[in-house]
Amino acid sequence: MTSPLELLSVDHLLSEEERDLRDAVAHFVDDRVRPSIADWYEDGLSESAVRELALEAGKLGLLGMHLTGYGCAGTNAVSYGLACMELEAGDSGVRSLVSVQGSLAMFAIWKFGSEEQKQHWLPGMAAGELIGCFGLTEPDFGSNPAGMRTRARRDGDDWVLDGTKMWITNGSVADVAVVWARCDDDKVRGFLVPAGTPGFTAPKIGKKLSLRASVTSELVLEGVRLPASAVLPEVSSLRGPLSCLNEARFGIVFGALGAARDCLAAAISYAQTREVFDRPLASFQLTQAKLADMALELQKGYLLALHLGRLKDAGTLRPEQVSLGKLNNVREALAIARECRTILGANGITLEYPVLRHANNLESVLTYEGTSEVHQLVIGQALTGQSAFS
Ligand code: TGC
Ligand code: FAD
To answer: For residue 345, what is the DSSP state?
Structure first.
């Protein structure tokens, strides 16, 4: 039998170093995520578990791993993608922790921060001793962050922030929040808001049916006074947060395939042992057709991800290409997870198997980091030259 991701021998396109790193992350997921994930999902991941996971991910060099300096591992983009794939094979929530820390919070500081800000925050964040979050979305402005109502006004040398951010991964756990706000001059700037700053609270969002092994929060800013040194000096437009999104979306292009692969492996294994009409479910043509189509989409997605990774490493990856990858791979991963669920019948709805957990998670992944519709419109703009957004 051939494993679903080896049908096309795509692994031959990886270097030995990339394969080694991928295998190390897979071991971490086997040891630290798989044994506990059903409980984390059922109970909701605790804040102390987030801290433990962050420390372990830091030890493995996974946080900000594709960044250089300041304690970051400085791997290539493909290695970062492969790590995301293995983490998300465990759970999308675990991959989210690493994405938000490395590609959003750390990348924002690394790319747009002052030298002092980088020295202050990045080494601790790379080690997982300090956790960051990224506050762009607001209750009324998700797909259209340009409409944000969070305001930063100058008061002498200080800045004063007011507003609310919504759906912020790790908001209640974070030691520092990167908050994007519109300023008096109508420009969008990023601010580093340390936890515990007066006027800043981060209540946890409950009753989630997806991404349950991840902490999601609101950020409330009421007259939050920050020194001049809190602003990220190197960007003053939406290009700032949108550049960070490119990084995280790239990780998701690989990550979603990990969730899909885990579902497919579970479905193949289940179909071999489950007897229906006195024969293994795997021996029926309809089942094999489902498995073949899913394996095909998985391989195509992997080739796409790898191609985008090589473009990123060559420094030529464009945002609309990331959109192609995120749109296709998340959409197909969700379709695969749902199809695998059918193969498991009633067992497929339990946490004894990973498939519905992955499918539920992928509903969030389909929405965050740009919904499928947003990515269709980004691609549409590249094809036609016409923006559907304005
Ligand atoms: P637009 O007028 O086109 O551009 C404004 C400025 O931004 C620049 N830009 C980009 N820069 C880098 N990368 C990109 N992908 C960029 N897209 C645009 C652009 O050049 C311009 O720069 P400048 O210097 O001239 O000012 O922007 P728009 O307002 O029309 O919006 C375009 C749109 C809709 C595509 C954008 O707003 C968008 O991507 N919306 C989706 C929002 C989103 O994805 N939010 C995600 C929040 S974070 C999150 O979900 C974390 S989930 C947790 C996890 O990852 O696990
Ligand atoms: P809306 O923008 O209201 O969209 C609703 C529907 O309208 C969608 O189907 C959308 O595609 C569609 N739509 C929007 N515009 C158009 C259009 N022009 N044409 C056609 N259809 C359109 N955000 C952060 O900033 N930081 C985080 O850490 C973070 N973590 C998250 C974690 C989770 C678990 C979730 C679920 C979300 C998270 N988000 C985070 C927020 C996420 O980025 C937003 O939910 C996402 O950008 C969509 O925004 P929205 O939910 O407001 O949907």
So the answer is: G
pLDDT for residue 364 is more than 80: yes
C-beta separation of 281 from 370 below 8 A = no
- The pTM of the full predicted model, rounded to 2 decimals, is 0.98
Which of the residues are catalytic? 369
Which residue puts its alpha carbon closest to atom 42 of ligand 1? 143
Rounded Cα–Cα distance for residues 79 and 14 (Å): 9
Band of residue 35 on the pLDDT scale cut at 50, 70, 90:
very high
pLDDT at 1: 75
Question: Residues with Cβ < 8 Å from 98, sequence gap 6 or more?
Answer: 57, 62, 63, 83, 84, 87, 251
Q: Cβ distance 369 to 248 under 8 Å?
A: yes
Q: Decide whether any atom of ligand 1 lies within 6 Å of the 248 Cβ.
A: yes
Cα–Cα distances (Å) from 191 to 98, 171, 235, 252, 260, in that order, read 21, 15, 11, 25, 36
Residue with tokens 């695998």: 340
Atom of ligand 1 nearest to the CA of 237: 26
pLDDT at 390: 78
CB 190 within 8 A of CB 148: no
**What is the whole-number distance in angstroms between the Cα of residue 238 and the centre of ligand 1?**
6
Q: Is the CB of 180 within 6 Å of ligand 2?
A: no
Query: What is the tens place of the pLDDT at every residue in 268-313?
Result: 999 999 999 999 999 999 999 999 999 999 999 999 999 999 999 9
